[in-house]
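WP5 quarterly update. Target: Polyprenol monophosphomannose synthase. Source organism: Aquimarina celericrescens. Length: 243 aa.
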Amino acid sequence: MAEALVIIPTYNEIENVERIIRNVFSLQRDFHILIVDDSSPDGTGDKVRELQLEYSEYLFLLERAGKLGLGTAYIAGFKWALERSYEYIFEMDADFSHNPNDLIRLYNACSKGTSQMAIGSRYVTGVNVVNWPMSRVLLSWLASKYVRFITGMNIHDTTAGFICYKREVLERINLDKIKFVGYAFQIEMKFKAYLLKFKIKEIPVVFTDRTNGTSKMSKGIISEAVFGVIKMKFKSLFKSYEI
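Structure tokens (predicted):
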């Protein structure tokens, strides 16, 4: 059994899912993949089931009843992984905005280094984003600066969603107490790992915006991040804050 699991949430990713799966399985290090699909009407789940005939021991599918949010998809995936013996658990998008080749770099940061959490960072060495309009680059960069200022975390890319966790991090965080479901989920997970004093390392990566499918970003997701961060930081000042 591989010691590393890559969790990939999907909703209407039929244009990307086969290619991302085959790409991960072509890497020199062995990874298992768990697709968490929110009943995609475009047949994403059906394509994964078809590929399971080829990769029966390495590819897994967790199907959920409808579009329930990014955060809850990852939490379901984390719980699935913790029920098994995976030591390294990854978050990665299905749309190739995260380069699968960087999985090995994140893995090495945790397995060969002293880090318990490795972040594929767009901003640790400047701004490494391709195919985004300047307005969106600026929004994302300022959001990370804002979160860093409010929370006190020494992390440049606080909203990144390309992450390797050592098992012990997810075992310490109470996954049932995660409040956010959109992209603020990424901030909350980092903040709780930070409060638990785990060593977090940023690995510079190039983020390339999707060329197939449609973005899941919305105003509600941005609002959750902006106002949720203040609320999260305020609660953390009290001993009753549950990590």
